[in-house]
Amino acid sequence: MFSLNIPIISIILTGATIIPIVFLLTLYRSRISCIIKHAKICRASSPDSLPSVSVIVYSHNDSDNLAHILTDILNQSYPSPFEVIVLNDGSSEATKDIVTELSQTHKNLYITYTPEEARYLSRKKLSLTIGIKAAKHDYVVITNSSCRIKSKEWLASIAQHFAKGKEIVIGYASYPVSADKKLGARSRAFNTVIDATKYLSSAIKNKPYRGIDANIAYSRDLFFKNKGFSRSLNLHHGDDDIFISEIATSNNTAVELSPESYIECIYRREPKVVYREQKSIRNFNSKHIKHTADTFFGLCSAMIWIWLTLSIAAIITSLPNLVITSTIFVLSLILWIPLIIAWKKTAATLHSRKAMLTIPFFLLYRPFHNALHNIRSRKSDKYNYTWQKI
C-alpha cells in the first residue's frame, strides 16, 4: 500500500497541485491578509488639525432608527466644528419632529426635504445632491438612519484622512451577526466578508472602485467637479460604487478600518432578503464599473477548483498505493491551514461570524453561489432603472 512503485501520471498530477498551492498561498493569501494588516495601522485620532465636516444622514421613512444615530453623531468627540444634515426622503412628520426636538439643544442639526413630486430620478441621489449642496463645510461624511455608530471616535477616525490630504475615505459597515439567525446565515456572513474583502483590498492596493453608502466620505469640491451623479441619473443606485469608481484614484482615496470607524446596519427587513437585494444591485452595477477585483478573485476560485481536481485525479490514479494519498493530505494541510487562519482573522476584523472548518466548503461553493445570484438578478435588472418603481 505504501510502495514506491507509483504511476508516473500520479507523480505528475501531484506535482501539478503545487502550482495552484503556491499561487493561493502567495497572491491570494496576501490579498486576504492586507485587510488585517491595514486595520492594525488604522488608529482613530483627534489632532487639532481635523477639518470641519458636514455629516449627512439619509433617512427614508425611518424615524424609528433616526433618533438613535443622531444621538450617536451629535455626541461624537470631535475637536472641530461639524454639522449634521438629515435628508428626509418621504416627508415623514415623525422625522421632522425628531430633528426639531434635537435641534433645540444642538444648533448644528439641520433637515432638508426631497420633493415628493420628483419622478424618473433616483430619490436617494437627489436627496444626497440637495444635502451636499446645503452643506457649509468642505467635506461630507455620509451614512444612513438605519445604522448604529459604535464609537464616539467614529467621525475623527474618518475625517483624519482629510487632514492628510485625501479626498475620499472608504469606511466599513455591515449588519450585526446576531441579527441573522435564519438558515444560511453563516454562508451569507462569509460571502459578505468575501465581497467586502474584494473592494476594500482593491482600495488598499491603490485600485479603489467602490465603497458602502452607510460609511463613506468625500470632498464637496470633488463631487461638484464630477457633476455629481449625472452619469448615473438613470439608475436608482450606484451612489457608492459607480460614482466612487468615477472619482476615486490611487492618490486621493483612503481606507479606514479601525474598530472606532465601524458602523452597524440595522435592517427593518430580514437580512436574507436584504442580502439578496444587495447582491442583485451589486451584480447590476458591476456592469458599469471597470475594475480587476472580480477577475482576480475569479481566478483564485478557479485555482482552488484546479487544485481539488488535480488532487482527486492524483489519488484515483495511484490507488491502491497510499503514498500519493498521504502526500496530497499533507499538501492539503499546507494549503488550507494558512488560508483558514487568514480568512478567520479577516472575518473577525470585519466584525463577522467566526468560521473555520466551513471555509473550504464556502470557497468551493462560491462560484455556484454567485452564478445562482446572477441568474436571479437578471430578472430584476429592469428595476434598477429610474423609470421603474422600487
Which SSEs are present, and which pair or pack?
Blueprint (H helix, E strand, L loop, with lengths): L7 H9 L1 H24 L11 E8 L2 H12 L7 E8 L3 H11 L5 E5 L9 H12 L4 E6 L2 E3 L4 H10 L4 E3 L2 E2 L10 H20 L11 E4 H6 L16 H6 L5 E3 L7 E3 L5 H15 L7 H26 L4 H27 L9 H21 L11
Parallel strand pairs: 1-2, 1-4, 2-3, 6-9, 7-10
Antiparallel strand pairs: 4-8, 5-10, 6-8
Helix pairs in contact: 1-11, 2-7, 2-11, 2-12, 3-4, 10-13, 11-12, 11-13
What is the element string, with H for helices and E for strands? HHEHEHEHEEHEEHEHHEEHHHH
User: Can you summarize the main beta sheet?
Assistant: 7 strands, mixed
The domain count comes to 2
User: Judging from the principal axes of the Cα atoms, what is the shape?
Assistant: elongated
Number of strands: 10
Distance separating the two termini: 64 Å
Query: What CATH architecture of the largest domain do you see?
Result: Alpha-Beta Complex
Mean pLDDT across residues: 92
| Percent of sequence in beta strands | 5-15%
- Percent helix among the residues? 40-55%
Helix and strand content put the structural class at alpha/beta
CATH class of the largest domain: Alpha Beta
CATH homology-level superfamily of the largest domain? Spore Coat Polysaccharide Biosynthesis Protein SpsA, Chain A
Number of helices: 13
Main β-sheet, spatial strand arrangement = 3-2-1-4-8-6-9
CATH topology of the largest domain: Spore Coat Polysaccharide Biosynthesis Protein SpsA, Chain A
List the uncertain runs.
Answer: none
- Rg, nearest Å: 24 Å
